[in-house]
Structure formats: structure tokens, C-alpha cells
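Field notebook, page 409. I keep forgetting to write these up properly, so this time I am using the form the group agreed on. The chain and the ligand, zinc ion, are recorded exactly as supplied. Prediction of the bound pose follows.
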Amino acid sequence: MRRTHFSDAQVATSETARGINRSIVLNLIRRRQPISRADLARASGLQRSTVSLITEQLISEGLVIYGSTGSLPRGRRPTLLQLNARRAMVAVDLRPSISTIAISDVNGRFLAQQSIRTPSDPNTAARVFSEKTRQLIDGHPDLVFEGIGISVPGRFDAQRQRVVFAPNLKWPEFDLKAPLQQATGLPVDMENAANACVLAEVWFGDAKARNLVVVTVSEGVGIGIFSDGRLLRGANAMAGEFGHVSLDEKGLECGCGGRGCWEVYASNCAALRYYRASAGSDGPSFSDLLSLAEGGDRQALKALDQMARGIGRGMRMIIAGLSPEEIVMVGEFTRLWNRMGPVIEKAVAESVLIGDAPRVRPAAAEPSVARLRGTVAMVLQKHFGPEPRAERRQRSSRPRLEASVVRHN
Ligand SMILES: [Zn+2]
């Protein structure tokens, strides 16, 4: 695929292309490890000498190490390369009630994990997260830490370096990045939870599509957009807030201040509201509601059916606006995919104006793991994708390289 955009002639002259070749090699090692240099050259279409140069540099940086030796039919034994699993990162899943802090190696394997009650304000959160992060790091003296990735239930505006829109967290605009960086000495990256799930799908999941939409359903409804092989953020990083498009201007009030937003009908909170209305009781947590439904409780099933229809109601916006090849659903509700999935699939099929309906499927990982994996991918992108600054420069003139492009090689 890379041959479509980049010729080897560009390799020799362009710094950007060198960075891209490095990404290609690094991603191939990640996907096919352990792998020989010869196989890297074959799979990438790059010259053997180019591959050698890049791998030597990666080895000297400690990102790649020599692994086991492979065997060839006639005698020679190539040295195989693999990622250095001692390179690690801290992954944080910031949620409205319970947050998770984990340590992951470069392959997305979680080595330690801790859940904590989310502090009620950003200052306390910065302090608590710093303390927990330090504890986890101190417990793993054998690892080299690359950075911290945080998934936020809101939008992180990279220009202003602040979380700007997090209605379900009920915090004012805040900067979690600088205090955490200061306290831990590690670079911090933040990303919207739905975007993090997109990254998780592209890096670690089954996603093969270049046009992929992730719909996360929890306290609210979030959309992450992977369009033409790149993550779409829009101005103020606000692209994808379909959850706050009003479907009924006389509807219930939403956390964003609007009325009748899609998430008012489709979120976990909506299902609990439906349950309370029909069962007349205070109602359980969403997880308990799912368990009740699994046990055959009629009121719980009714509430979740209504939620599934609520999710389906907004799908037309996604289909008409983004025309994805694939829609990945992330949320606890996917536990009942056998029942709720067909309702959503039907709504999607009915929304298609032309061509085949996109595939709709639940995410491979459970929601918390998907978000944490996404933050790992976020930190890794620095090594595995082009330099962020170079990326900005080239954005207008040249397609951006993403992991999905590489994996199809
Ligand atoms: Zn809203």
C-alpha cells in the first residue's frame, strides 16, 4: 500500500519519508514479531540496506531487540527481531465514577492495574493519579516508561492543552496534563474515550476498514471517527459529538444543556430511566440491570430493548454523515449483543441510502480494556507514527500514514 504514495526515490531525499519508512518497519515488527530483516524487506517493499539501517537505529534506541533465531531450510539462521517488551507506559481510563490506572508493555499487555474512585475535582485528580502512577512505576523497576496516556470522557483540545467538553464528568474546563507531567516527569497524552477506542481497534483489534466509526455507549454516547485512514478531530477536537444532536427539541434535558439529544435516549442512564419508569422502583446499577436481563427479568429486558431502539435512532446520522464501512460498538450493553445487536443492525440497514450496509459489531475488548489499549496506542503513536510536528506540516500536501495502512501490506 505504501507504494501507492511513496516511492523509494523519496526515501533517499525526504526526511518525512524516512520517518514513514521507520513507522512501516516498526509496525511490521509489531505485527509479525519475531521477524527477520529479509522478511521485513519483503513485506515492506523497502531495500534490504534501508531495512538494516532502520533496524540498527531502532535497536540502538532500545525499541527493538534481537529475539530468537529462526531457521531456514538450508543452514543459515536469520536473527529475528522483536519489540522490546521492557518499554512500557502508563494507561489511565478517566471515568465519571471509577477510574483505572494500568501499566502496559509496548505490545499492549497489561502488567498491573488499579481502580480508584474518581476524585470530584481536577486538582485532586491530578494529585491522586500522580501518586498512583508513581507507586505503579516504583513497583516495576525493570521497565522503561515512555509516557502516560489518558482516555477522557470529554474532548481534549490539543491547541489549548485542556479538556474542554466533559458534560458527564461535571468538571469545569481543566488541565490535567501539565500537573501530571510535572509530578511524574513523563510526557502525558490525552484523548477522547471514543477516539481512544478507535486507536485500540486500529492498533490492536480486528479493524481492517479505512472508514470506521466507533460508538461508545456508557453514561453518554461518544463517537470516534476514522475516516480515509485517519482519526478525525475537527476544530476544538469536537468532531463526532453526534450524541448531542437533538432528536426531539421538546425532549428531556441533556448534560450539555440541550434537549432531546441522542444520548438522552441511548445511554446507560437512559436504560436505567426506562427501567425505573416501568418497574417503579429505584433501580439497580447498569451492570445489575444487565444481570437482571440475563436472568430473564421482563422489566429489565424491556428497558434494554428501548435503549437498543434509542441507539438505533441515531444511527442514521452516522450512516448519512460518515458512510463508514464498519461500526464498532463499545459498551457494557454489548454483553446482551444477541438481543440488542439485531435491533441496532436493523436500524443501520434501514439507514443506508446506497450500497451495502456497514458491518456492525461489538468491540473485541470490554470497554475499559478498549479505552486503556487506546491510550497505549496513543503513547506508541509517537514511535510508530510520524512525528506529530512533521505530521502537521505534511497534512495538507500528503496523506497521513496510519497503522491501518501499514497492516494491509
Ligand atoms: Zn446533549
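OBSERVATIONS:
- DSSP finds 16 helices and 15 strands in the chain.
- The radius of gyration is 22 Å.
FOLLOW-UP: compare against the apo run.
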